Glycerophosphoryl diester phosphodiesterase
Amino acid sequence: TGAPTIETGVISIAHRGAPFFAPEHTIPSYEIAAGLGADYIELDLQMTKDGVLVSIHDKTVGRTTGGQGEVASYTLKELKRLDAGHSFAGRERKRYAHVKIPTLEEVLERFGDSVNYYIEIKNPADNPGMEKALIDALKKFQLLHKKDKNGLPKVIIQSFSPSSLKSVQRMEPGLPLIRLFNEKDFASLTDDAIKELQTYASGVGLPYRSVTKKEIDRLHSYGLDVHVYTINDKKTMEQYIDYGVDGIFTDHIDQLLEILHMRQN
Ligand code: G3P
Ligand code: MG
């Protein structure tokens, strides 16, 4: 049986927080996104050498922190020495100097059930046990199978890895799971592949340039939600909302929220 679909209008997903206002994947970035009213803050989870889930996008620490090497080669203690604001080019860069890479638990501790979480499991093949660590943390903060006041699931889990999503489903059936595709993989998505996907996923996360209205309608005909990433201009946001997408990942959550509020009134 297919997993639950996310009955809603268009969900606004703050891609890596609010990366133009504060360094991506930091508590201040998530605070700004939450404060602006994003439906979801997006986390990209990886695991440290000593098994701690942290939110950072790249496999390596160089681009955002100016450090060297892979996230997985650092213990948490070593990772906490890096400056997650190092490469931030925003106006307030002084304010965010030496902001740290957050652990999943620190984010859940900080926000609790005041926000919704759209959590990507990254590079699961490198870190067996990520899925169980994620489920355990969500259990600890009592966020599993909860909905917010608008009926949105408090937690959506996403990954490019079908096996990772299937292991989440085995451990915790009924969670809304989103299967991510890059442009190449999506182009080859056959009907059979979609039928298989339906057995564990509520929907798909696609690069917006990969989908036309026709393909969105086709995916909807299979009962799948369609979330697109990463739209950073208002004209394209309007275009994909008109196409009927169910969610948009954006670095400019303020702009998307403006459009959605205008459309609701
Ligand atoms: O998770 C959706 C989107 O963020 C996937 O792309 O590379 O930004 O994590 P990426
Ligand atoms: Mg992501």
Remarks:
- Strands lie at 11-14, 40-47, 53-55, 117-121, 155-159, 177-180, 203-207, 225-229, 247-250.
- The radius of gyration is 18 Å.
